[in-house]
Protein: Oxidoreductase
Organism: Salipaludibacillus neizhouensis
Amino acid sequence: MNDVRVGIIGVGSMGTQHAKYLSTKEITGAKLTAVFDQSEDHANWIKENICHEVAVFYDCEAFFQSGLIDAVIIATPHYDHSKYAIQAFNHGLHVLSEKPAGVYTKQVREMNEAASNSGKVYSMMYNQRTNPLYVKLRDLIHSGELGEIRRMNWLITNWYRSQSYYDSGGWRATWAGEGGGVLINQCPHQLDLWQWITGMMPTRMRAFCYFGKHRNIEVEDDVTAFAEYENGATGVFITSTGEAPGTNRLEIAGDQGKVVIEDGKLSFWRLRVPESQFNEEYKGGFGSPECWKCDIPVLGEETGHQGITQNFVDAIQSKTSLIAPGEEGIKGLMLSNAMQLSTWLDNWVDLPIDEDLYFQQLQAKIKSSTVEKKNKITRLDVKETH
Amino acid sequence: MNDVRVGIIGVGSMGTQHAKYLSTKEITGAKLTAVFDQSEDHANWIKENICHEVAVFYDCEAFFQSGLIDAVIIATPHYDHSKYAIQAFNHGLHVLSEKPAGVYTKQVREMNEAASNSGKVYSMMYNQRTNPLYVKLRDLIHSGELGEIRRMNWLITNWYRSQSYYDSGGWRATWAGEGGGVLINQCPHQLDLWQWITGMMPTRMRAFCYFGKHRNIEVEDDVTAFAEYENGATGVFITSTGEAPGTNRLEIAGDQGKVVIEDGKLSFWRLRVPESQFNEEYKGGFGSPECWKCDIPVLGEETGHQGITQNFVDAIQSKTSLIAPGEEGIKGLMLSNAMQLSTWLDNWVDLPIDEDLYFQQLQAKIKSSTVEKKNKITRLDVKETH
């Protein structure tokens, strides 16, 4: 079988990473054949430093019509994910997009439709779905071990970013450039995992985003969000880029106990009988269900970006099912959009959100933006992020 | 010096506890001389089973005018705390009241005024203030080790209560009997500690209480509350009586690191330089402040109810300063009232709250209550609670 010929769209910080592992043949059945970047410097840097054989394009149309590629990885600023994905599908190419799927759900819905019409393989770079801890937690929930979910609490405040980080890219942390802050740049993984692990999306949310609270930026850098679910469960999601050392602790409580992921460990407190059954049968005063703390084996390795790219290539070559199907990208983005919209309206928002209203509000933010950034773009080493 | 002669008002579950340790002379400088309970059975049970020498009263006025007591411990249902406290102060008696201070702040404000006018010793049974973990955390914060507080997150869901618990007392979990659920009965300690440890009260709150969500009761048994503070800090407080095994985890993040209390341990992650200073000086990409995990010694023992009662007696005899001055009781209650009020209004509430509005809303709940409980009152063994 021929290698899948992969082109990368956007070779800034993250696109460079993808170019590196593709050019060192870490992905079986794939080769890097072309890169496209509007910045000639960026594109040429890849050819000079990473992969001498790669074809370099500064023109998008020439890239798509080159005949050199079967599939693309999109690693541009977020606003352009859907634009390039739609073009790629229209050119009969398979698409793996960086997260988030886009900036607003209206745009991502169009991207999903283009994918569906094309019949091509469509995946999202949700590399945290390869983390064995989350895979195992999802397994416990979907197999019924935890019982019906009642509460989720994710404290994910370890996305520390300094002012100098924000100052390093002209498009960073602006309404026009990114369309958001910690929710759109740092948290898409957790927002995806939140719904993927549980299989549940809220029916409504009430969120409290703070814009430029810790840093001199116009977008949100601190968020507390409250979610209600159809079955009566509730959830809280808290994130910030302004705290050190920060915390990453996910707790999910169900009818049969609770699970906590923290410090790279999964702990399961299992009730001997479900809480609902205990409550029905118990006739005493202060008693509670017998509880066993269980050591749950968590096997396997996090395969990260390479894992998702390998899975994407395998799906193209042998119809392997996708770890992160592209059309699921809209879910995490819906949570992110809902949190911002709830804050702007200072009220509850029902899900699915009013996509037109969100789009209007976002446009208003872009219009009233007073940020004038120098167009300094630095290629950051991303090995310390996801 | 003569022993302080203590009378107990209300000898249900909790009052019985106080009678027990007083009659076994666990409190230096105090003796149990009288009990008053509207239930003759309850009052006589103490004389027959706990303390043969105690004088028993079923009539409140006779109790106050007996000349047998210098101080009272009030352990009635919550609504009556302020009523009896005011009467006691008017009779020139010292007062130690069970938590909560009362059901609504308007009532507690009157209680505080009566205390102030009397000049007598006035304390609140906040026995968790003797827990060395919280004492130490307060020390770290008040001495500036944590820096300015930015976020608090208290997940206190280990207040499991079965339906049979709620069915065991006629006044339990009703608007007329208790004036609330988990906030007014189980959580007063944490609500007090929250403000006592930090020395901070929110400027506004947005809360989500659920009434009778897990149990057949009319009051709240599940709460998520969001708080904003004057310095920009935020906080989340989550509680429930319907989850097992539940969690008790308090995290406080500041400019110089974070502290977590969980599983009876205090952990302090200390930044080498404050986050704000790091942010100002750092010029790189993904860096964050150097952080040291510190083992903090937590010494001493939790002296509990006896510790507070001993401190109360010591304050009467030798002007020792109080661990839990009575007039501070209104603060935790203000948080509780604010959470209910925010839910009822489905909106933000500013603090201090509109006390008249809260009172009106509470009266409306009492009026529209459809609960008709059997007047079955069981004396529960409280050794498993606080």
In short: Chain A is about 35% helix and 20% strand.
